[in-house]
Amino acid sequence: MLHLFPLQVRIENTNLCNAFCTICPREKLTRRRGTMGVDLYKNIMRQLKEGGTKELHLQGYGEPFMDNTIIEKIRLAKEAGIPYTFMVTNASFLDESVSLEILNSGLDKLKISFYGLNREEYEGVHRGLSFEEVKANVERLLKLKKKLGKKTPVISLKYIGSLHKFLVFALRWGSRARVSYARLHNYGYGRRFNRARVGRKDRTCPIVERPIMQVLWDGLVVPCCYDFDGRVVLGDLSKESVRDVWNGERYRGFREMHRKREYEKIPVCFNCDKLR
Fold first, then answer.
1. Which H or E run includes 160?
2. How far are the Cα atoms of 183, 257, 269 from residue 251, in angstroms, in the given order?
3. Can you tell me the distance from the alpha carbon of 275 to that of 266, in angstroms, rounded to the nearest whole number?
4. pLDDT at position 2, please?
5. How many CB atoms lie under 10 A from the CB of residue 68?
6. Strands ordered across the beta sheet of 178-182
7. What DSSP element (H or E) covers 25?
8. Does residue 135 sit in helix, strand or coil?
9. Number of C-beta neighbours around residue 60 at 10 A
10. Going by C-beta distance under 8 Å and a sequence separation of 6 or more, which residues neighbour residue 213?
11. What pLDDT band is residue 261 in, cutting at 50, 70 and 90?
12. Helix (H) or strand (E) run with residue 258 in it
């Protein structure tokens, strides 16, 4: 079913980051670095409210809390009537003040990337961050949420690594927060952890098949978050409306190539390990 407006929108509020995680190909990022201005963001929120968007993911190829307007942006989304708001963070900025702002912002879910059971494992992945500092931030956030009796945001800790280590991770954190597990992925063309199934003609994309729009910090629209360097531009929300981009020629042509399984015409998709 083709929706005339995206029901889920993912906005990269910033692509700046304070870490250099080994799983993330930041060294291959060539596009401009920056943060979405509040005026552009407000314009998008107005359109999402009018169009009936149900879900907003407010992060992208960066650490969202490097944006000093991020709490304002969460509140603006809730004021626009977005039913569900979601964010992923490395939790390095979550001091007591920021944690209290998050708990009072209206955010529905906060997922924390925490890939390690100890300092050696964690800092071997999250280069530039401190295991003890981030662990203390997470524990304080959980305590504050319990103390204040807040139901939201739902806090989830995500682990990437071996499955048997995740079981230990789940036992350590599972009584205080939700936990989730994920396998390493290639970030499209950024890493080579997995072999793309390029020999299969019947592959489909779980994102293109759903009414999801991915917006970069400068307003450019790309197919998904795995196109981290913005190679396939489908529109520009600093110049076009959400509806016009979603129903525009470039987006329609992109969907048609996916419908026909002509992935070789889109190298970003053809080599993606998420295409199954």
1. strand 154-160
2. 29, 10, 14
3. 12
4. 73
5. 9
6. 178-182, 154-160, 109-113, 84-89, 55-58, 8-11, 212-215, 220-222, 235-236
7. none
8. helix
9. 21
10. 6, 8, 9, 10, 221, 242, 245, 246
11. very high
12. helix 249-259
Helix or strand run (H / E) with residue 155? strand 154-160
Rounded distance, CA 213 to CA 3, Å? 11
The helix (run of H) or strand (run of E) holding residue 214 is: strand 212-215
CA distance 221 to 213: 7
Helix-, strand-, coil-residue percentages of the chain, each rounded to 5: 35, 15, 50
pLDDT tens per residue across span 78-115: 999 999 999 999 999 999 999 999 999 999 999 999 99
- Residue 268 CB neighbour total at 10 angstroms: 19
Q: Which amino acid appears at position 168 of this protein?
A: V
Which pLDDT does position 1 carry in this prediction? 58
